[in-house]
Design brief:
The protein has about 100 residues and is an all-alpha fold. The chain has one domain. The protein contains three helices and no strands. The longest helix has about 30 residues.
């Protein structure tokens, strides 16, 4: 294993982690734009198309690890904030 192989490996790891974090942020922003009380449909369409366009460009131009990191981050962010719904769980008054 040469020095350039080690540097290439660290580059792949940084790309994966960077796109993972960007995917989480994109998932949060997507749900924030969709759940906004103002309900501007133009913003919702722009965010929706932006996510799909960016994913398609990553699939064509990036490596499999980069696309996988973005997909894991985006899916995780959408699941986490989508299931939370932006609301705190309420206590059931019947359980008192």
């Amino acid at each position: 294993m040469e020095f350039f192989d080690v540097i290439a490996f660290f580059g792949w790891v940084v790309r994966f982690v960077g796109l993972l974090v960007f995917g989480i942020a994109a998932g949060w922003f997507t749900l924030y734009a969709f759940n906004n009380d103002e309900g501007r449909w133009q913003m919702q369409i722009a965010v929706f198309l932006g996510i799909f366009l960016f994913t398609a460009l990553l699939a064509y131009y990036s490596s499999a690890g980069g696309l996988g990191g973005f997909a894991l981050g985006l899916g995780g962010g959408l699941l986490y904030w989508g299931m939370r719904g932006g609301k705190l769980p309420e206590e059931d008054p019947d359980e008192e």
